[in-house]
């Protein structure tokens, strides 16, 4: 079934929500602070003279794509602060019924359990609410932090894709990981991936993980 838009997903103090016009200053500051950190992992345009689109263009385009059901682009926030992004794009319906999940958090939040919770929240939504069959994540082999997210969420490694995505000036190899709906025991709340992650990692006493 189509995902509603705008969409919000929550787990305790973690909120995934759409980018808004008033987010411009905080969002651009987070990107600027993490420019060096993101350079090695962030997909880029192989046509080198194409700069990142202005905020207004990005805002308009992501909302258009979300309303067209082609993607789900969400900010990762906690207590009002923007920590990063998680998205499902492209989303394919019909025979494939799948989505590719991408994510990033600022370097200050790496290892704090933010990225796995965000990815798990979105994965559970894609399975339980959007009715998809398969999710996929593609990670550079050098990205140890992102590989740990795949490991913590029990994503199944499917192999190396040579020169798969353009990153930092060249087409780079990526490891592909996947998970299907049949591999997740989803309960009545629709939270199979997140429930498993929370059960397996350190808790703060309220059912939410600490820095793991």
From TrEMBL:
<protein>
    <submittedName>
        <fullName>GNAT family N-acetyltransferase</fullName>
    </submittedName>
</protein>
<feature type="domain" description="N-acetyltransferase">
    <location>
        <begin position="14"/>
        <end position="182"/>
    </location>
</feature>
<dbReference type="InterPro" id="IPR000182">
    <property type="entry name" value="GNAT_dom"/>
</dbReference>
<dbReference type="InterPro" id="IPR016181">
    <property type="entry name" value="Acyl_CoA_acyltransferase"/>
</dbReference>
<dbReference type="InterPro" id="IPR051908">
    <property type="entry name" value="Ribosomal_N-acetyltransferase"/>
</dbReference>
<dbReference type="Pfam" id="PF13302">
    <property type="entry name" value="Acetyltransf_3"/>
</dbReference>
């Amino acid at each position: 079934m189509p995902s509603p838009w705008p969409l919000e997903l929550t787990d305790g103090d973690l909120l995934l929500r759409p980018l808004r016009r008033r987010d411009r200053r905080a969002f651009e500051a987070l990107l600027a602070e993490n420019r060096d950190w993101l350079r090695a992992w962030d997909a880029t345009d192989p046509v080198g003279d194409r700069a990142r689109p202005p905020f207004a263009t990005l805002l308009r385009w992501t909302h258009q794509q979300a309303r067209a059901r082609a993607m789900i682009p969400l900010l990762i926030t906690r207590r009002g602060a923007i920590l990063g992004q998680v998205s499902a794009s492209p989303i394919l319906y019909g025979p494939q019924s799948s989505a590719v999940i991408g994510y990033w958090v600022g370097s200050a939040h790496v290892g704090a359990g933010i990225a796995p919770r965000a990815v798990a929240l979105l994965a559970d939504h894609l399975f339980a609410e959007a009715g998809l069959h398969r999710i996929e994540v593609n990670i550079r082999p050098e990205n140890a932090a992102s590989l740990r997210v795949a490991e913590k969420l029990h994503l199944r490694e499917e192999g190396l894709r040579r020169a798969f995505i353009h990153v930092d000036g060249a087409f780079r190899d990526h490891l592909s990981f996947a998970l299907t709906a049949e591999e997740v025991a989803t309960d009545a709340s629709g939270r199979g991936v997140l429930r498993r992650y929370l059960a397996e990692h350190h808790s703060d006493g309220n059912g939410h993980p600490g820095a793991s």
